Every structure is written in structure tokens, then in C-alpha cells.
Amino acid sequence: MLSTLALALSIVAAAADAPAKPTLLALAKKAAADGTSAALGKGAVTDLHLADLALKVLPEVPADRTDDGLAHDFYVGMQNGALRCVVFGAHKKEPPHVKATYFRADMGGRLENVAAITGDLDEEGQPVKGSGVLSQLDPDDEDVVKRFRHERDFWLKDAYRKTAEPAKK
């Protein structure tokens, strides 16, 4: 009996020492306080119903810092200072194109709208303004929901992140 109690106490102690994972609300508040003002393309703003909202974004996590090969963004949408929604963004450069998907969720974490964009890259690997082709995805589609959960887990569970710094070139 004592060994079971000791084991239980050691598990509780280990859990107390583990860093806390952020909640969606905490992450949104961090983006609102520490993020920079942001804008998405006109088509994405329309498809994601963001026209009346001010956006702030946390610093991008570049693809070389992830295990999934995607760069990740986290936005918060605000209206008159009130948090209204979050947007998870994931994009990948596959020269000569870039592909991006944006997932809008309400503050409870329910997926509302999804927009996918494919655009061209210039010679320096930067997106060519105006080259994007936008499509709205079904938020109830099984594959879309799976990809949304992947993004949510990236930000809220620190999933798909590399732990070591990339090698300096």
C-alpha cells in the first residue's frame, strides 16, 4: 500500500514539474498582447469571415523547426479589443509554388471555416503577390478536421516541433 502511495505521489510531483501546456484562450490572449498586427489576403479574409476583425499574429515557427515540414502561424481575431476567433495557419514552400491552409476556429476551439491557397514563388523563393488561387474547404470533411487537429496540437500540445536548434550554415 505504501509503495502505491509513493508511486502516486511521484507521478503527481513529476506532473507538477512538467511545463504547463497553453490553453486556446491563453494562447489567444498572448497573441493579443504580444503579437504583431497582421493581414491576410483579401480572398482568405472573405472566406474566413475576418473582414470586421483586427488580426494579430505570433511569430511564425519556420519549417526547419518542425518535424512536419510545415511553417506554422497563429492569429487572433479581435473586435473592439474582444477576442472573437483564432486562425491556425500552415504553409509549405514547394518550388515553384507555396501552399497554405488557414483554419478559423471560435474561442471554444470549434472549427468554423477553412481556406486553402496555392501561389507561385519568385526566383528568391518569395510568394508572388496576386498569384494565389483560393479555395474554401469543407470544415466537416474528415481530412480537413484531421489537418485542423494537427494544427491545434502543434500550438496547444507542442506536437511536431523539433527540440534541437537547427545547424548553423
Keywords:
169 residues, alpha+beta
Report on this model:
About 6% of the residues have low confidence. It is built from four helices and seven strands; from the N terminus they run H-H-E-H-E-E-E-E-E-E-H.
- Work out the helix count: 4
Helical percent range?
Answer: 25-40%
How many whole angstroms does the radius of gyration measure?
19 Å
* Major sheet: 7 strands, antiparallel
The largest sheet has its strands arranged as 1-2-3-4-5-6-7
Number of strands: 7
Classify the beta-strand content into a percent band. 25-35%
User: What is the mean pLDDT?
Assistant: 87
Oligomer: single chain
The total tally of domains equals: 1
Question: What is the N-to-C order of secondary-structure elements (H for helix, E for strand)?
Answer: HHEHEEEEEEH
Summarize the structure.
This protein is an alpha+beta fold. It has helices at residues 2-17, 24-34, 42-47, 142-156; strands spanning 36-38, 54-57, 71-79, 82-94, 97-106, 111-120, 133-137. It has a 7-stranded antiparallel beta sheet with strand order 1-2-3-4-5-6-7.
Fold topology:
Blueprint: H1 2-17, H2 24-34, E1 36-38, H3 42-47, E2 54-57, E3 71-79, E4 82-94, E5 97-106, E6 111-120, E7 133-137, H4 142-156
Antiparallel strand pairs: 1-2, 2-3, 3-4, 4-5, 5-6, 6-7
